[in-house]
Amino acid sequence: MSSRKHSRKSNPAPRTRAPGKQGLYDPQFEHDTCGVGFVMNIKGEKSHAIIRQALQLLLNLDHRGACGCEANTGDGAGILIQPPHDFLRLVAKEGKVSLPAAGDYVVGMVFMLSKRSERAECEKVFANIVAEEGQTLLGWRTVPTNHGPLGATARASELFMR
Predict the structure, then answer these.
(1) For residue 140, is it within any domain?
(2) Is the pLDDT of residue 121 over 70?
(3) What is the pTM of this model?
(4) Which residues pair with 161 in a beta bridge?
(5) Which of 57, 96, 120, 138 is the most exposed place for a label (fewest CB within 10 A)?
C-alpha cells in the first residue's frame, strides 16, 4: 500500500455546500440530479468504505422530497452494489440452487404483490419471459425484511420482495 492511501480519510465529514466544478461534475447541473448520488471505485475494487460513503450520501440527501407523512415512513431509498457473490453462494446453497461462477449470472430484485396466489402468477409470467429470452431462471429467494419500525402508511403499501 502506498502512503497516499493511508493519508486519505475513510469517512470524510458531510459537505455543507456543493463542490466546485471538477471532472464530470459541474455545479450548474446540480438541480438536474436531485436525489441521486454516486460513490464508486473506478477500478471496481470492493470495499466497506464505499458502502459507508454511500449510506452517508443517502443521509445527506434529505432534500429528495420523497419523505412520508409519518416520521417512520420514507421513500425506501437504497444503494445499488455489485452482487455479493460469497453471500449469494451461501443462500443459493440453502435454497438448493446451483449458482454459477461470479459474473456468470445476474441478480434481480422483484417487488411483488403480497397475496400469495397473485405472487405465484407473477413468478410464472416472469419465468416464462426469462425462458423466452433464452435464459435460465435459477430460483427465487424471499428477501428477509423487518417492517416493525415502518409507519402505518408504509406498512399498508409494503410489497413482497423476491
Answers:
(1) yes
(2) yes
(3) 0.62
(4) 111
(5) 96
